[in-house]
Amino acid sequence: MKVHEAAKRLGVTPRALRFYEEKGLLKPKKAEENGYRDYSEDNIVQLRWIIALRELGLPVTAIGKVLEALAIDVELTAPAGGGSFIRQADEVRAELYTEWIEQGRRLQSLDKAIAVWRSQQDGPELEAAESNALQLKQSRIERMTWSDRWHYDELALVHGKDAPIVALTNELTLEQYENALLQIVEWLDPRPQEPGLELGAGTGNLTALLTAQRAVMTAVEQSQEMLAVLRARLPAVEPRLGNLLSLPVSGPSYRFIASSFAFRHLEPNQLLLALIEADRVLLPAGRLAITDRCDTVSPLRSWLEQHHYSIVTEELDGGLMLLYAVKP
Length: 328
Description:
By secondary structure, the chain is α/β, with parallel strands linked by helices. The chain has 3 domains: 3-84, Multidrug-efflux Transporter Regulator, Chain: A, Domain 2, CATH 1.10.1660.10; 93-145, no CATH class; 152-326, Vaccinia Virus protein VP39 (Rossmann fold, 3-Layer(aba) Sandwich), CATH 3.40.50.150. The chain is built from 14 helices and 9 strands. It has helices at 3-10, 14-22, 41-55, 60-75, 83-119, 126-145, 152-159, 163-167, 174-188, 205-212, 224-233, 268-281, 294-297, 300-306; strands at 29-30, 37-38, 195-199, 216-221, 238-241, 254-260, 282-293, 310-316, 320-326. The strands form 2 sheets. Strands 5-4-3-6-7-9-8 form a 7-stranded mixed sheet, with helices on both faces. It has a two-stranded antiparallel sheet with strand order 1-2. Helix 9 crosses helix 10.
């Protein structure tokens, strides 16, 4: 099939097909005598993937990675929704959400600057722009510098669903760990079919308890290997790759949010960003339950009180604290 025929069949221009070829996304055969491209049915299927992924907002570089993962799954005769493809799609989604959230914060900062400029009778002053730009820059740096320094991918590969427990072995007993999770479930008291979100879900130990209450759960986790264990354990749960500073969620969607032993991995400035993100995706009157060390949980109160959350704290065995808050 020649380039014009292929383009017409797919509803795109010949120029678009040449562009995808230049970017290395496909390699049609070329006739030796004249160099004309000949698109096979396999090329057409690949182009359909490319066009669909472009419409979904994926950049060309990301499409290349997704197609490579798809090819790996095909070679391994993986089932539909093969592991490599889903993992790569997860990574791309997390990156796109981070970019989307950053753009939203830029718009908010610009709105604030414009509001100040309108109130200035002598014309807009540079200080308003610099102040908002500095705040935006600082929060962006906090998000960009976050990284997994605890090697959770390796822990998940070695210990499977017990990886979170192993990570806390030197700090908590198994009984203390399990009691902390049960206390979160008791405080949240999820209703059947109620949408919930777990932050830093690990391999799904807390998520499993919440789904046992028939809650409809989404689990956000930054470790691909932890997420793979969770996905295999809890196929009814919606797993999403991401971290607490850039949640892969578009807006207020959840009646409750739960988190155990995840906030400890954030720097003091990052704790505020994580709370802002949790607040962004929690519905009005939604509940928030966080369990961690006392020195991690206590600083969260101030921000929540400033934003009119109703708050209760409870000290747990092992130097832990549970914070329960209800959004206004």
